[in-house]
């Protein structure tokens, strides 16, 4: 569990983070969202003391991070940034094993962990272990960057705009991969993003920041239906709000009996995904993996109350 208590950072006479307090429970994903200059990256960097707080404190599982040497603290916390930050003259395996080497792991432990993570990210170890970063695609580089952040099995992973440089298709896949892997590992994750869509897709909790202040912190459904301020409402937008609410509910919750033609949709897909598939393919019903169907009429029925809730 991460507890941020009255955290403040002042540069000169300007407070870029102002008295922020929030808690991220173990195994949750918290998304910090806001416009440029809102203080979200500074807040993130105070957690691993890349930026020292001017006031307040951070507790990780009840331990004050100010009582831990900064370099030792950072070895306990995974950190991934936009553009992956891989060392260009080190192989994939050498990049991934950076922190385990600093921690004194043996060569066999390095290799086993590298292979484990490559397999987890669906990258065949024999094919990728000895490649150089420039030999990878952008999506592959980003996966290696996240694998490196996870290499020492940290309980906490910090991510600063990790998918900002990826094209939309690769970005969507990277987000899904991250969500799946985070659920498998149970890692607590705090991610900075300027994209509300990404925050809703990934976050169990969303923290909206503006001018250094925390305006609202809560589950995506609460942020979308009851924005605390006009800034939060504007950041969410009105036109997309019903569709974002649909993205929070899986298809499995509205499966009906019946048969349908065409490709099956996964049970864990969102209602938004199902609606998009119906509209794109021109079908009024979709078969669901494992049996049953989801219909366009049922999706429309779900969309109507979410649209009213978003008004």
Automatic annotation (TrEMBL):
GO molecular-function terms, A-Z: ATP binding; ATP hydrolysis activity
Record InterPro entries: AAA+_ATPase (IPR003593), ABC_transporter-like_ATP-bd (IPR003439), ABC_transporter-like_CS (IPR017871), P-loop_NTPase (IPR027417)
Keywords: ATP-binding, Nucleotide-binding, Transport
Domain ABC transporter: from-to ranges: 2-236
One biological process term in Gene Ontology: quaternary ammonium group transport
Superkingdom of the source species: Bacteria
SMART domains, sorted: AAA
Family: Belongs to the ABC transporter superfamily.
Name the record gives this protein: ABC transporter ATP-binding protein
């Amino acid at each position: 569990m991460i507890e941020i208590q009255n955290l403040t950072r002042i540069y000169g006479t300007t407070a870029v983070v102002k008295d922020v307090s929030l808690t991220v429970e173990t195994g949750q994903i918290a998304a910090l969202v806001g416009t440029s200059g809102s203080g979200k990256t500074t807040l993130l960097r105070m957690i691993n003391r890349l930026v020292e707080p001017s006031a307040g404190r951070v507790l990780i599982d009840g331990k004050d991070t100010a009582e831990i040497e900064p370099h030792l603290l950072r070895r306990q916390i995974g950190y991934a940034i936009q553009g992956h930050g891989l060392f260009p003259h080190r192989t994939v395996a050498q990049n991934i094993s950076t922190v385990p080497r600093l921690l004194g792991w043996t060569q066999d432990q390095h290799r086993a962990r590298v292979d484990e993570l490559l397999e987890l990210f669906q990258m065949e170890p024999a094919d990728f272990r000895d490649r150089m970063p420039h030999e990878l695609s952008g999506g592959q580089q980003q996966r290696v960057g996240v694998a490196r952040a996870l290499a020492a099995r940290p309980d906490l992973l910090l991510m600063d705009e990790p998918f900002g440089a990826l094209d939309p298709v690769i970005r969507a896949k990277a987000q899904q991969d991250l969500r799946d892997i985070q659920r498998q590992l149970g890692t607590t994750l705090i991610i900075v993003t300027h994209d509300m869509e990404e925050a809703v897709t990934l976050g169990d909790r969303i923290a909206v920041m503006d001018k250094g202040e925390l305006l609202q912190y809560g589950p995506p459904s609460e942020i979308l239906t009851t924005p605390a301020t006009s800034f939060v409402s504007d950041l969410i937008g009105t036109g997309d709000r019903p569709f974002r609410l649909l993205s929070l509910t899986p298809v499995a919750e509205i499966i009906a009996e019946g048969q349908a033609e065409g490709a099956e949709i996964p049970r864990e897909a969102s209602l938004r995904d199902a609606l998009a598939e119906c509209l794109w393919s021109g079908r009024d019903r979709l078969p669901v993996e494992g049996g049953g169907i989801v219909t366009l009429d049922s999706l429309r029925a779900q969309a109507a109350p979410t649209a009213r809730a978003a008004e």
